[in-house]
Amino acid sequence: PDVREVHTLQRGRADGLGSVRRIDWRTRLPYRLNIEVEAVEVVHHQRLRARARGELRGEGLWLLRADGARTDVTYVWRVELAKPWMRALAPLLAPLFRWNHAAVMRAGGAGLARHLGAVMQV
Questions:
Q1: What beta strand segments (E) does the chain contain?
Q2: Which residues on adjacent β-strands are paired with residue 24?
Q3: Which of 56, 65, 109, 117 has the fewest CB atoms in 10 Å of its CB?
């Protein structure tokens, strides 16, 4: 629900490798983020690695593991802030930024679970 728009900038291969998408995110706080995400590694049904650039810079890694009838997903997101005001205020606002990120990710997880007809377990 917090993804406002996604634009495909580069299609990439059939498995998604090399694809680049610009994502416009809204947040619980009064700012939005625009990032470009490029798929840099795709291992079918196991792993997806992406590089982020724009207002956040870094890398994301999704690990998928079959667990009976379910799929366990672990997501690691290591980024740095590119907006100067965010970097300057990060030491003071870190708890608020963490709360904001957790709220956006929780909403996204719930939306994905609904889309898949699944139950989200945290």
A1: 3-10, 20-26, 32-43, 47-54, 56-67, 70-81
A2: 5, 34
A3: 117
Handedness of CA 6, 105, 79, 82 (dihedral sign): positive
CB 12 within 8 A of CB 20: yes
User: What span, in angstroms and rounded, lies between the C-alpha atoms of 38 and 59?
Assistant: 9
- Asked if 25 and 34 touch (Cβ cutoff 8 Å), the reply is yes
pLDDT digits (tens, 9 = 90+) for 64-73: 999 888 888 8
Residues 119, 88: Cα–Cα separation, whole Å: 39
Nearest to 8 by CA among 39, 33, 29, 31: 39
Tokens for 118, please give them: 């699944």
